[in-house]
Design goal:
Radius of gyration: 23 Å
Helix content: 10-25%
Strand content: 25-35%
Structural class: alpha+beta
Order of helices and strands: EEHEEH
Shape: flat
Oligomer: single chain
Distance between the termini: 69 Å
Number of helices: 2
Number of domains: 1
Amino acid sequence: MGNDNWFAARLLFAALHNSQEEADPLCEESIVLVRAESELKARQKASDAAAKMEHGYGNEEGAWIDWRFLGIIEIQDLCENELQNGTEVFSHMFLSSQSESPEIREILEKKDLRPIGNGSIGEKPKAAAVGNG
């Protein structure tokens, strides 16, 4: 386990009712961390963990609900042997115009998305030079 890295596995689950076939079932994405020596082994560990997360219960209307694991959406190697505060566990890049998330669109609408500085990270724009012309 000395050279094992941490991986983030994005899992997909669906709530299935025993009383009806659901055309649009409630789904859940879940991100779990697994430690493994390769992506292939991380995928197997994530599948094993997901199988243990499947569960069922009776709802208020008397129907049985099964939360079933449907598959692994994505595995990301965190490139870290040790986790600590602030360790990134998942990232997703997308064009702002293509976000389907209302929460993300709401944040983007409130922010000034113009670059700062001359392209150097963290550098603030320089004030215009005042000339003696």
